[in-house]
TrEMBL record:
Claim: Cell membrane is one of the keywords in the record: no
Signal peptide: 1-18
Signal keyword on record: yes
Keywords, in A-Z order: Signal
NCBIfam families registered for this protein in UniProt: PEP_CTERM, rpt_T5SS_PEPC
Domain Ice-binding protein C-terminal: 443-464
InterPro entries: Ice-binding_C, T5SS_PEPC_rpt
UniProt-recorded name of the protein: Ice-binding protein C-terminal domain-containing protein
């Protein structure tokens, strides 16, 4: 009797084994919850009842035979384009509620195409992974409703190409991290009034990974953790032409000399980094702000032998709440034209162990570079820092303010700040302290004075401090 009770208890305690079902649209009505449109793989059996959290669902048909869900259902795995040389398509419409206990896989096999088009309802895979394109091509399009998962990889495998589009009023949320271009090619686009949120993200994660993230319209992209673009020899890009991209920290060009990351801000786009931003930590990191705005608490350009570059042009706005520096790397900061603005609530400080520290200014005629670069708590320029100047269009003689601070301006250079090219072009510089600001001013003489200089008439130009 005891043995019988033990056997019964063991049988009760054993969980039901997962059952694999494949979509065949046998009824021809495309209805996801119509059990006649499915069969148990390896048999001809129909599902015994509504799907549960133990059932694996496979869709390998597309187009006229796609699966359409507009009511409630459940499952364990949802897979499309799983086997080589197949195509799978799933449509999720208003009224749908698909709750998965495990993962979503799209475009897993080679030579596959898989698509989820979501216009409403909800799909949740909150306890596991969403994989978009392992070896094939895969698309996750969310134009309405809510898609949620724990993690996501787009362009997961070296041969995969994946694309995720959040548009319209679609909302996508991830509890943990996402990867765009992990080992393959990945694209993540947030547009219109769509929203996207996750903990952290890496775009272009490994050497074979190439990733691109795009934010436009009024799209809202929010990360509670870090954002990395170009990691471990990968290549990652962010294009923000509208809406906002917000993260706690940003790393661009990280971990390997072959890593390349690029951030492009234009139009009305906003990139907001709550704490630290590093461009070129071992790798190469580029920030181009031609419109919209980029803001962060503080920034390091060039670290651990890396190269970091910032270019602010057009109507772009660049703002740091604290300091700008470089650390055992190379820095290039370029300001173009009179409409762009650069302001720092802290200071500019070039440490003694930086690689190269170059500021470039492209002046816009008599308008120069507007207010130039402003640093609230001082500017310190060490030996080796160079300033290079040029004009956008024809040169206009005059004196221009290119840097200013209400605090102390430290010029520790002994060979002068201006580059050889700037000196050859006739530029001179002076540090002038006024009532409220100390300014780094540069002067280009009028053509007649330049002729005297070239002819040996050096008395025609009095330099207060030059190379």
């Amino acid at each position: 009797m005891k043995k019988l009770i033990l056997v019964v208890l063991l049988m009760v305690s054993i969980p039901l084994l997962a059952v694999d079902y494949e979509w065949n649209n046998n009824s021809g009505d495309n209805d996801f919850v119509n059990l006649n449109n499915w069969y148990e793989i390896g048999t001809t059996n129909l599902p015994a009842g509504p799907f549960t959290a133990d059932d694996n669902l496979l869709v390998e048909l597309a187009g006229a035979d796609k699966a359409v869900l507009n009511s409630a259902s459940a499952g364990r795995w949802l897979r499309a384009g799983w086997n080589d040389n197949t195509s799978g398509e799933i449509e999720i419409a208003a009224g749908a509620d698909l709750n998965l206990s495990d993962s979503v896989y799209l475009g897993f096999g080679t030579n596959t195409t898989a698509t989820i088009n979501m216009s409403g309802g909800s799909l949740s895979a909150n306890s596991s992974y969403t994989t978009i394109a392992n070896s094939g091509q895969a698309y996750l399009n969310v134009s309405g409703g809510t898609y949620s998962s724990d993690r996501m990889s787009v362009g997961n495998g070296a041969g995969g190409r994946g694309e995720v589009n959040a548009s319209g009023t679609g909302q996508m949320t991830f509890a943990a991290d996402i990867y765009v271009g992990q080992n393959g090619e990945g694209y993540l686009n947030v547009s219109d009034d769509a929203g996207f949120s996750a903990r952290s993200m890496t775009t272009g994660r490994y050497a074979t990974g190439t990733g691109e993230t795009n934010v436009s319209g009024s799209g809202q992209f929010t990360l509670s953790g870090y954002a990395t673009f170009g990691n471990n020899a990968g290549n990652g890009t962010l294009n923000a032409s509208g809406g906002s991209f917000t993260a706690n920290r940003m790393n661009v060009g990280l971990g390997d000399a072959g890593s390349v990351g690029e951030i492009n801000v234009s139009g009305t786009g906003q990139v907001i980094i709550d704490t630290y931003s590093t461009f070129g930590n071992t790798g190469q990191g580029f920030l181009n702000v031609s419109g919209g705005s980029f803001s962060a608490d503080r920034m390091t350009l060039g670290q651990n032998g890396g190269f970091g570059q910032v270019t602010v042009s057009g109507t772009g706005s660049f703002e740091l709440a604290d300091y700008l520096t470089s650390n055992t790397g190379d820095l290039l900061f370029r300001l173009e034209g009179s409409q762009a603005s650069v302001a720092m609530g802290g200071n500019i400080r070039s440490s003694s162990d930086f690689g190269s520290y170059i500021f470039e200014f492209a002046l816009d005629g008599a308008n120069g570079v507007g207010d130039g670069i402003f640093a609230q708590t001082g500017i310190t320029l060490n030996e080796g820092v160079k300033i290079d100047l040029e004009f956008i269009g024809a040169a206009v003689d005059g004196t221009y303010t290119i840097m200013s601070t209400p605090d102390v301006f430290n010029d520790f250079t002994t060979s002068g700040l201006l580059s050889d090219d700037s000196v050859a072009a006739g530029w001179t510089y002076d540090i002038v302290t006024g009532d409220t600001l100390t300014e780094l001013q540069v002067t280009i003489p009028e053509p007649a004075t330049m002729l005297l200089l070239l002819g040996g008439g050096m008395i025609a130009l009095k330099r207060r401090k030059t190379e």
